[in-house]
Amino acid sequence: MLTNQSMWRIILVLAAVGMVFDNTCADQLRFQSGEKRVALVELFTSEGCSRCPLAERTFSKLATNPALWKTFVPIALHVNYWDNLGWKDRLASVEFTQRQHIYASAWRADTVYTPEFVLNGREWQWSGAETLSRESNETPGVLTVSQNDARNFVIAFTSTKPMTGDATAHLALLGFGVTSDVARGENAGRKLTHDFVALVHHESRLQGSPLRAEFKLDEKSSESQRRALVAWVNVGGDPTPIQATGGWLTQSH
Known about the structure:
There is one protein chain. The longest helix has 24 residues, at about 5-25. By secondary structure, the protein is α+β, with helices and mostly antiparallel strands. The strands form 4 sheets. Strands 1-6-7-12 form a 4-stranded antiparallel beta sheet, with no helix packed on it. It has a 4-stranded mixed beta sheet with strand order 3-2-4-5, with helices on both faces. The protein has a single domain (about 30-250), classed as Immunoglobulins (Immunoglobulin-like), CATH 2.60.40.10. It has 4 helices and 14 strands. Residues about 5-25 have low confidence and may be disordered. It starts with a helix and ends in a 5-residue tail after the last strand. The radius of gyration is 21 Å and the shape is globular.
């Protein structure tokens, strides 16, 4: 038989476990779009390109835009085709280069270049942040990113209309204040600072009902002053994002 003292010990232990569980749940991340389309604006860039730092400085200003994460989600993708021209960009990825080539092929463009802005899957000449702040009239559905534990995330998408093909979810970890001292190439002698830079990117087919995919992110962001997490969805072989969401990460994430 349990004594009163033993009962109180059990109650206190259970209460402590409950508090830990509540704090853990409260600290878990969740980002969600509305039904209206949130624009994905991509910047294809490189540390080897002399015209890119100016475009990146313009991009960096979006961090203080009140419409950030609400009507638009930015991401800077470093391409690797500058790497054999004097400076190897440590942030560059062949994956991002391939993404730019897929876009160019869809547009029937003869070449790719940096810096290049892409807005909702279309080549875009920068015309000011006002364009990005406008609310869309399109309503593709609700995209949600939630956190299971420290490194595991779930993306779910609830479409407002029947899907015309397989949907693919993308999850990217972004770094801010990431610096590089460039020793060679067109930017030799310059210290470059990068914001919204993709440090990690994963993609997976959405499955089930509702549509969902699970991701495990590797930690590659120790040098970042700040971090964010972004997600988007495309359908079929078309890389054009139909919905996006994202937000800032706290130190606990």
